[in-house]
Write a structure and sequence with these properties.
This protein is an alpha/beta fold. The protein has three domains: about 130 residues, NadA-like (Rossmann fold), CATH 3.40.50; about 120 residues, NadA-like (Rossmann fold), CATH 3.40.50; about 90 residues, NadA-like (Rossmann fold). Helix content is about 45%, strand content about 15%. It has 17 helices and 13 strands. The strands form three sheets. Strands 1-9-8-6-7 form a five-stranded mixed beta sheet, sandwiched between helices. It has a four-stranded parallel beta sheet with strand order 3-2-4-5, with helices on both faces. Strand 6, helix 8 and strand 7 form a beta-alpha-beta unit.
Length: about 375
């Protein structure tokens, strides 16, 4: 079942057999998340009011790459979870309004200074991947492996981070895993909750000559990335011969695409695995004019800004995160106007979660 923990070899063998569908209800996307459903007059009003309130409140607006385009366009910083955590923790603004999913708001609430308020434009912006992380199963694993090291992916809630030794984001997952391998020799490692990123971690261990037996994986996945399968990438490569492909390691196509590269079927420079933010850098720097993008389609907006001359093809055009899209331009305005929804974290959990988060922010 999703949330179960297995030795890495067993988990990898089971990846295609476990039901990794969302354990929580996926909400409908609000109509106002689509820019065409907001009149020009209302958009101009909202943008002007957000600018006014931002100045009045001494606020910083942070937006994840998967946000609707008009939310990204009013943000002070746009990026992935690691980048926004870095920007938020470095800011002295009185108000940190983060349009993202709630585990990201929790990170800012844990790291915030005493005078700062952390706001979430929507309380419906949950995360199907974070919901797979079963804290009781983590505690059971720790009891069985008293010398074990827990690496939790950033897509987890504060109770899971509090049980962790290290956190990582997709942008620095390889560096965190390498750091643990080098600084925690021989100790069992539990990587959670994303099994596809766990497969990526397993390949890193093998490259470093480490025994795979020391790695354990949790069966979990982002329901959006899980639905980007190998056939999606193959079909787009067939339709666009010569196109490069850039893939988020959370995707359901990860293991198949990594095998294609390893076997020499696809040149490594033509198929790269990158974090959400790393994808933007890849699109900007690749000489190929057409790039197949395997991730949530919202990331195409900042990619297009970074490389307007490139043709960007979503591997699966239906890869849309309804949780991320709960954040709308109206929601950002109302959040700043009414100072809602303020995110706070239990003091004890926050203290325990701070260390793995600090490690994530320092290993870059």
């Amino acid at each position: 079942m999703a949330g179960d923990i297995f030795p890495a070899r067993e988990a990898i063998a089971l990846m295609d057999e476990v039901d990794l569908s969302p354990p929580i209800e996926v909400p409908l996307i609000p109509a106002s998340a689509f820019p065409e459903n907001i009149s020009r007059e209302e958009r101009e009003f909202l943008r002007a009011e957000i600018a006014r309130l931002k100045k009045e409140r001494n606020a910083l607006i942070l937006a994840h790459n998967y946000m609707p385009p008009d939310v990204q366009d009013v943000a002070d910083a746009i990026g992935d979870s690691l980048y926004l955590a870095q920007q938020g923790t470095a800011s002295d603004a009185d108000v940190l309004c983060e349009a993202a999913v709630l585990f990201m708001n929790q990170i800012l609430a844990i790291m915030a200074r005493p005078h700062q308020k952390v706001l979430a434009p929507s309380l419906e912006a949950l995360c199907s991947l974070a919901a797979h992380a079963d804290v009781n199963k983590i505690r059971a694993w720790k009891r069985e492996h008293s010398d074990g090291v827990v690496i939790s992916y950033v897509n987890t809630y504060v109770d899971v981070k509090a049980e962790s030794d290290y956190c990582c984001a997709s942008a620095n997952s390889a560096k965190v895993i390498k750091y643990v391998i080098e600084h925690e020799p021989g100790r069992p490692i539990l990587f959670l909750p994303d099994v596809y990123l766990g497969f990526y971690a397993a390949k890193l261990l093998e490259k470093m000559g480490e025994p795979l037996d020391r790695l354990f994986l949790m069966m979990g996945a982002c329901h959006v990335h899980d639905r980007i399968k190998p056939h999606h990438v193959e079909e787009q490569r067939r339709l666009h011969p010569g196109a490069a492909a850039v893939i988020h390691p959370e995707c359901g196509c990860t293991s198949a695409c990594m095998r294609q590269i390893a076997s020499g079927m696809v040149p490594e420079e033509m198929m790269q695995f990158r974090s959400t933010q790393g994808m933007i850098k890849f699109v900007r720097e690749t000489p190929e004019q057409t790039v197949i993008v395997a991730t949530e389609i919202g990331n195409i907006h900042p990619m297009s800004k970074a490389a307007p001359e490139k043709k960007l093809i979503p591997a699966n055009p239906e890869a849309v995160c309804a949780f991320m899209k709960q954040n709308t331009l109206r929601g950002v305005y109302e959040s700043l106007r009414d100072l809602k929804y303020e995110i706070t974290v239990d003091r004890d959990l926050a203290e325990r979660a701070r260390k793995p988060i600090e490690r994530m922010l320092s290993i870059v």
